[in-house]
DNA sequence: TAATCATTCAACCGATCGGTAGAATATTGT
DNA sequence: ACAATATTCTACCGATCGGTTGAATGATTA
């Protein structure tokens, strides 16, 4: 019987465990090159070529990374003639932040409670 | 010449592009089973066995997932006799949230600016 | 001491990943 | 019409991933 050791309530679950979108967003930004692409695209739209020129890997490598970001919903592509212009999309990042913040806040509260308990105990129970 | 198309400044880079810790944190939470483990562990400490019993995969599968979370710094292990007790660690999540929020805030500001521009234009330039 | 329990370790499997190279497909400029 | 440009598609490579199984290690209990 795995006694839960703490009586603090668990946070209400923020996600039904199987969200392919969320999986893809986290997997996408787990790669440093893709995070750098996000950073580059935050400066404004770029086409694939001028984006690729900023990275030490091959054009095709960057093209593949862009596709991953696209599948995660983080990048939108606008084809204009022979060039494909890429733009960031903020929405999926918001959902991704939400999951993280949920647990971060929970832990912050935990640490605060612990500190309060220690401070409160200090002079009161000699 | 990849004209940046927007004159808005890019956000100041929040990470020097190659942070194995951050990579590991995002890769860790990209898997739904591992996110569920995080959720389970938020309810208090658990040993590997009682944790594994909550999941439809094998004991060893869960053990491996725990190891991934550990390497990402999200879980701490305390060996007590033959059982290993697992506890969440908030610190890496904070760094992970910071990167996401950085861009989220940037985009929010962008959307706000766009909206303001549209509203401002509406009655002023007929 | 022997049996049981909690756990890791090692090997394996098929799938996916990051990356490259080369061929194919459009679009543009001359 | 032709050459150059921008990009994807296909195929390949070695590495890692999620998962399983079986054996090994170590602590507890009888």
Write a structural description.
The structure is a homodimer of 126-residue chains. By secondary structure, chain A is mainly alpha-helical. Chain A has a single domain (20-124), classed as Winged helix-like DNA-binding domain superfamily/Winged helix DNA-binding domain (Arc Repressor Mutant, subunit A, Orthogonal Bundle), CATH 1.10.10. Helix content of chain A is 57%, strand content 11%. Chain A has five helices and three strands, in the order H-H-E-H-H-E-E-H. The first copy, chain A, has helices at 20-29, 32-41, 48-52, 59-71, 91-124; strands at residues 46-47, 75-80, 83-88. Chain A has a three-stranded antiparallel β-sheet with strand order 1-3-2. In chain A, a hairpin with a 2-residue loop joins strand 2 and strand 3 (83-88). In chain A, helix 1 runs antiparallel to helix 4 and helix 1 (20-29) packs across helix 5. Chain A is elongated, with a radius of gyration of 22 Å. The two termini of chain A are 35 Å apart. Residues 1-8 of chain A have low confidence and may be disordered. The interface between A and B is large, with 54 and 54 residues. The structure holds a DNA duplex (30 and 30 nucleotides).
Query: Can you tell me the CATH topology of chain A?
Result: Arc Repressor Mutant, subunit A
- Strand ordering within the main sheet of chain A: 1-3-2
How far from one another are the termini of chain A?
35 Å
Beta strand count of chain A? 3
Q: Output mean pLDDT of chain A.
A: 83
Short structural summary:
The structure is a homodimer of 126-residue chains. Chain A is mainly α.
């Amino acid at each position: 019987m795995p006694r839960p050791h703490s009586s603090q309530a668990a946070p209400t679950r923020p996600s039904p465990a199987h969200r392919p979108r969320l999986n893809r967003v986290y997997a996408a930004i787990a790669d440093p090159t893709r995070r750098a692409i996000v950073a580059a695209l935050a400066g404004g739209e770029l086409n694939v070529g001028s984006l690729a020129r900023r990275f030490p890997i091959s054009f095709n490598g960057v093209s593949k990374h862009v596709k991953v970001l696209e599948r995660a919903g983080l990048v939108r592509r606008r084809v204009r003639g022979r060039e494909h212009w890429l733009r960031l999309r903020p929405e999926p990042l918001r959902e991704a932040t939400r999951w993280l913040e949920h647990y971060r806040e929970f832990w912050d509260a935990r640490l605060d409670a612990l500190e309060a308990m220690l401070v409160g105990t200090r002079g009161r129970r000699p």
